[in-house]
Amino acid sequence: GAGVSQSPSNKVTEKGKDVELRCDPISGHTALYWYRQSLGQGLEFLIYFQGNSAPDKSGLPSDRFSAERTGGSVSTLTIQRTQQEDSAVYLCASSLGYERRQPQHFGDGTRLSIL
Amino acid sequence: GENVEQHPSTLSVQEGDSAVIKCTYSDSASNYFPWYKQELGKGPQLIIDIRSNVGEKKDQRIAVTLNKTAKHFSLHITETQPEDSAVYFCAASIGGNQFYFGTGTSLTVIP
Predict the structure, then answer these.
(1) Looking at CB atoms within 10 Å, which of A4, A27, B24, B61 has the fewest?
(2) What is the pLDDT of residues B7-38, one digit of tens each?
(3) B contacts of A10 (beta carbons < 8 Å)
(4) Contact check, Cβ <8 Å, A104/B103
């Protein structure tokens, strides 16, 4: 498709389980971002990938969170030993990224619920 | 780091009236200011953006103004329609990877 694709759209899991969230960016976009959006809140930056550069992980809330981007395209966000406070919508965005101030294009997110 | 504040948090207007949402930012180095519209169950969608070398930008019923001296920018929606009902987010960026988002404004347009 033409837009950013995220899967699954919804995920319900038990506390303590690991989860993997997937993001397919727009073809040709070199920059990829992960955000977390809690109910009624703004967007909390998690991690940023730009081409082959080392990712900016400064927004990851704990070492239970990690992300990788394979082949400069698809990205996976992994949350280990999930906690109830991890429940949120996880949004992925991509942009052209080779020039400053490029607009971000968002996917529809993965709604994660931890029981 | 940058701090973006957005007001109001909720806004109700009658169909056909105008709606104005305001954001302030703290870092004078910020030079790019996008606005996003988020409908229920969807991701944010870019609706308009402005760069720091421009004071105003219009796109049909939507306009954004930027006051660099006061470090604030505003979204104006004229002739509002029910389909404008959504959550609107402002953001500020100094470039690179960092975007700082406001906390959102829930706009309701009453038919």
Answers:
(1) A27
(2) 999 999 999 999 999 999 999 999 999 999 99
(3) none
(4) no
